[in-house]
Every structure is written in structure tokens, then in C-alpha cells.
Amino acid sequence: MLGFGLIGRVAAEIRRDIAAARTRDPAARGVGWFEILAAWPGVHALLAHRVAHALHEAGVPLLPRMIAAVSRALTGIEIHPAARIGSGLFIDHGMGVVIGETAELGDDVTLYQGVTLGGTGFATGKRHPTVQDNVTIGSGAKLLGPITVGHGSKIGANSVVIHDVPANSTVVGNPGHPVRVEGRRPEGPDADWVHLPDPIADAIKSLASRIAALEQTAEGADDGNVHPLRVPDGHDDPAETEIAHRVNRSVGPNPAGG
Hints:
Structural class: alpha/beta
Radius of gyration: 26 Å
Number of strands: 15
């Protein structure tokens, strides 16, 4: 049932949404709350969703979807009326953001433009992501299916996430790879997308160093002065150990003699 208690709750959520925009958007510094309410499309979309969701929860037919459709046309942000969104959500720019029917967002989440919290296939029931508190999701990221993104995590721009994300981690790549951020917690609206970990680049560097070692061994074989590769101890990478064994077996006395 609609009532003053529900209206008061929606009003409190809207006040916190405006405060989130003032805190996390550098362009909103020094801007009054009325200007944010009048000119920030992310705030408009949230305002419309708060009303549509309250009507949806009260069992009002048709009207919640109409409000969502008008909001999508005006802001470019599509939020299903049934989606559950906590307080303090900030949608920066927002164009192209899609939040599906069974999506759930905790408190103080930050979304950038082009983010999709979508489903996979035609399954019924829970089919959209659950995003816990203090999560930041970068521009163009796609989170698909009934996955859970843990508290304080950070999703890099254009990542495609189809598996659960541990708390306090950063995800990059397609498909997304969760990696621990060394030396600091990636919690909060940190917009430093330049210095995200890159596991693919790390893997390429590792391969390049192994190739260099193989080339050095091959050059030694051509000179007749072969120096077998050091066989790593048990604490090293098993793949590196196997490479060393294979190379050492391949180099040896010249079968042609001389």
C-alpha cells in the first residue's frame, strides 16, 4: 500500500542519491542540490526508478513500466521497475546504462556510461547480477547472468564479467579476470582506470622471458658451447620447469660426431 511512510522513504533515498552525485562527480563540486536535481540525467533516472519501483511493489499495473519507458527515452538509462537498488547509487553520464529486472544493487555503487547488468538466455527467476556495496563499474562493462560482485570490488572499463567476483578485487579483460590490487583496497569511487592490473600483459612478459632463455640456449648450441638451462626448484612455475627439462634433453653431443 502507498502511504506517507513509503513516500518518506523514497524522499530519503533521493536525498542520498543527490548527495552521492555531489560527492563522487567532480563536475558537481560547488553545484547546488537543485541544479543537480534539474540537470543530472543519472539523478533523473534514479528518481523515476524510485517512484516506479514503489508502484511496482504496491502492485500497480502498467504505470511503473510507463514511467520506466519515459525515463529511458529522456535519459538513455534503462532500469526495470522490479530492479532492487540500494541508496547512494551514482550513475555518471549514464547514457546506455541497462539494469535488468532481477538485478540487485547495494549501497554506494557507482556506474559509468554504457554499463549493462544483463541476463543470459531465456531462463526465468534470478537471471541478473547482484552487486554488493561500494562497487565501482567502469564504462562499457557488461555483467551477465546471476553472478555476484563482492563488496568493494572494481570492474574495469569494457570488461565482460560472467563469473562471481570476490570482494575487494579488480576485474579486467574479456572474459573478466579478477586480480588482487596490491598495496591498496580498490574500494570506493576510484576513477583511476589507467593503472589497473593487466594479467594478459603479465603473461606475455613471462612468455617473452622464457623465449629469450630458449634463444640464449640455442645460440650456445650453435657455438658448440652449450650451457644447460637451470632446472628450477619445486617452488617455481611447473611450466618453466618442464621447458627447462625439454631443452636440456634436446641439446647434447652432436650425433654426427666431431
